[in-house]
Amino acid sequence: xxxxxxxxxxxxxxxxxxxxxxxxxxxxxxxxxxxxxxxxxxxxxxxxxxxxxxxxxxxxxxxxxxxxxxxxxxxxxxxxxxxxxxxxxxxxxxxxxxxxxxxxxxxxxxxxxxxxxxxxxxxxxxxxxxxxxxxxxxxxxxxxxxxxxxxxxxxxxxxxxxxxxxxxxxxxxxxxxxxxxxxxxxxxxxxxxxxxxxxxxxxxxxxxxxxxxxxxxxxxxxxxxxxxxxxxxxxxxxxxxxxxxxxxxxxxxxxxxxxxxxxxxxxxxxxxxxxxxxxxxxxxxxxxxxxxxxxxxxxxxxxxxxxxxxxxxxxxxxxxxxxxxxxxxxxxxxxxxxxxxxxxxxxxxxxxxxxxxxxxxxxxxxxxxxxxxxxxxxxxxxxxxxxxxxxxxxxxxxxxxxxxxxxxxxxxxxxxxxxxxxxxxxxxxxxxxxxxxxxxxxxxxxxxxxxxxxxxxxxxxxxxxxxxxxxxxxxxxxxxxxxxxxxxxxxxxxxxxxxxxxxxxxxxxxxxxxxxxxxxxxxxxxxxxxxxxxxxxxxxxxxxxxxxxxxxxxxxxxxxxxxxxxxxxxxxxxxxxxxxxxxxxxxxxxxxxxxxxxxxxxxxxxxxxxxxxxxxxxxxxxxxxxxxxxxxxxxxxxxxxxxxxxxxxxxxxxxxxxxxxxxxxxxxxxxxxxxxxxxxxxxxxxxxxxxxxxxxxxxxxxxxxxxxxxxxxxxxxxxxxxxxxxxxxxxxxxxxxxxxxxxxxxxxxxxxxxxxxxxxxxxxxxxxxxxxxxxxx
Length: 777
Hints:
Shape: elongated
Domain ABC transporter: 540-774
Mean pLDDT: 80
Keywords: ATP-binding, Membrane, Nucleotide-binding, Transmembrane, Transmembrane helix, Transport
Membrane topology: Multi-pass membrane protein
Structural class: alpha/beta
Transmembrane segments: 12-32, 44-67, 79-97, 109-128, 140-165, 333-356, 362-382, 452-471, 477-497
Number of helices: 25
Protein name: ABC transporter domain-containing protein
Strand order of the largest sheet: 6-7-8-3-9-10
CATH architecture of the largest domain: Up-down Bundle
């Protein structure tokens, strides 16, 4: 009974440590915010180091006791106790080795695990003391072993005490913190923060709903079948070595075990990723992987489009594009996790359990030690690779960004004869990338060498022990063959783990930017009680509006004005006076810092953004076009418009005849960003878009700035017809284009300095008249 109790405790102890560490670490990360660490880190580390030394000494004593004498009631010299000591040593040894990403810093989760370990060690020490005192003959080994048990209890207790009593006195729970100033400076987002497995789990949970085919029962059924086939593969992996042992035992002169060989061949045909089961499972998974990639990529693109203008103005296009292309990395991560990592761990566990139940427990100990050392070494060295890989990925994104900048600014590059400079800039980024890549590849070679040494050592020990038993008549050759077969079978999943863990690290590092995109939140969103704007009259009112982009420099100061429905307002002023910022506020690209904007008497914050913008047409200063046909770009403002409506809009913008003169007419390709069109043609296309949309409110930001005088006059007449009955707000530098407006507002350094009609402002001898006279000269 005592032996059964000891065996149970020895099995539960290391298992409980792993479970407690995983659960407590996850809970602590979810519920704490501050960097929490004891002040006496070196004391804690010394206690754990002494604990590991004590465990190693006890393992040596247990081996000596097992090899030199009968147990005689000494359960601490049994194989279960020895196995548990090895497992516990591995656990604590893994926690004290230096982390390549940060200095040693135990968390509250560590303290929880140490408390649990203290309880187990105390119970075992008391149990051992009672057994030692009951022995009829004590020797030095018994006394030393008991002292080592007491030392482990002391080390763990000191570790807990120093961890908690020397911790900083601050709240661990998320709470408010005091900040000074209006808006804090944004954090540096040049590179993503260092992440651990908890961050990866949390991020993966966030995107799991995006990659699981929840709307397709057929794909869900395929996924279930794939998992069942995965379980069948694990059973086949157990049967193959057993069947090989059957063949070896059946071999004899004059005997041919045909049936056993046929069964072995059939099992081999089913085994592995290239086997029948693996091929069927891979075939069934193809549409699931495609659906996963499609859903994740579409969700990331939709999320980026939903982010506010401040995000897009603050990010480089190349970096965002690079992050959006990483959907395949998460898809590959999911496949690797399900079909490589989990099966490998299952195969390792089944093999260890089989060896423990069937053969000498020392075989199980060798397999566990070899598997732990292999996996831990892979993970540990991969941390160094992950850090280097993260730097390489950052260099890769920078290289992509430089390429995108050069291609987007093609004309600027050639205008300034800067081709050589751009090539040199790109060559520098390539050089940075290759230096980072060299470090990654060097660490990969080191990892492969370490893995080979560990596996070779495990095979050598197993062969040596089995050969010793065969020579002593305790085992048969069939057992030797079965053991070698199992080890050979373990080599493949372990090698796969080395490559798949590296691949998973690479995929997660590559996908960090995409996951970071999902963490971005739009700053302009619909209020919970926002309503749709159904009937828009076009009455705009600004009440004491102020605005700042960064919370430090105010762009608009106390702007108050009213625009009646169907009237026209012109906003003029020097460059940087806040004209474009005013339009961005009216379009709700940003929220006001102070004051209020009302449309038809309703604050714009109480209207849904989509319904608000559907009633506004914009003619921007710089027209952006898609690399498609003219017809697509014009109809973009109203996809449901008929061809006749498109033609009418183009005629109103004096563009129809020009388009018909093109060889392909409305099907002419405009090129990347409309580079095949002139500035005036692009501007007229933008005006045609606004006309086709037929909104109640029209914003024009230098709508005719790129046109010649004759075309400008024709379009001004068209705009006058289009604007009739609609609220129109025009930003203009060329004052001759806004003399007909019902009201003109003059901005200077973000403040309204003058308001009136053209004739009224000229009579006032103010800022507007000075601008008019300068342009008239």
